[in-house]
Amino acid sequence: MLNSIENVLRAAAHLLAEHESPSPRIDASVLLCHVLDKPSSYLYTWSDKLLSDEELAAFNGLIARRTLGEPVAYIIGYRDFWSLRLNVEPSTLIPRPDTERLVELALERLPKGEGSVLDLGTGTGAIALSIASERHDLEVTGVDLRPEAVALAQRNQQENGISNALFLQSSWFDAVPEHAFTMIVSNPPYIDPEDPHLAQGDVRFEPKTALIADDHGLADIRHICQHSPRYLAQGGWLMIEHGYDQGHAVRALFLGVGFCDVETVQDYAGLDRVTLGRIAQSALTAEAALT
Ligand code: GLN
Prior knowledge:
The chain is an alpha/beta fold.
């Protein structure tokens, strides 16, 4: 049948494949679910059902945007991350599954009982809200340079019913109140401005400020490493996401300011993705030496 769900999906997936979507069938299904306001199971259960003219026109409009490369998350306005549905806007990075690895590692290492977590460059609030949602006994602070991101994170907090998080506008530590955090987490910009991947796929539509950093992508990570010791409790953890080829350089930065138990952990694809370490008392003097 001409405009059955199955036929429409097949044609759209074919078109998206021609326009080099890496996941044409999934993209088409997600966009159709969005138009129909139904879960994906509906598409398979009712594959013979005919779309109305309005539904078809709306779907074709979204597919046309996707053929121009616009990320699915920006088209539908949200991305599922951890157990949360997060609104996304072109002013923030789209949360990625790789970053769920960081959340997992943070939850494994956060000690039992009360504590506090700082998320630097929070964007949608993905990391901060995931941790806060799992650990109601922690106070989580998320900061971002861009006021639009802070407003978005606050909206995500509200819509997910999370009370133990607070979002502030701050350039890294600049507006962070003096505090000894139990853990500092961050998914900062870490892509080299010359990286050819910036001209491909979804990242073309994401804000450059959330993606690129000077000094081969290491400038912001270095800044975070140098200033973290002053904001960590004794034994507190620093955990930073980074590029697959930056593990060695990031470990050197951690060790240079006196972190101990430093290690790099791989993402689900087996690539170096997160480096972590805990503060030793002597790091406070190492920070002073470096800054
Ligand atoms: N992991 C992302 C990418 O390679 C980049 C995220 C970031 O810069 N923090 O697309």
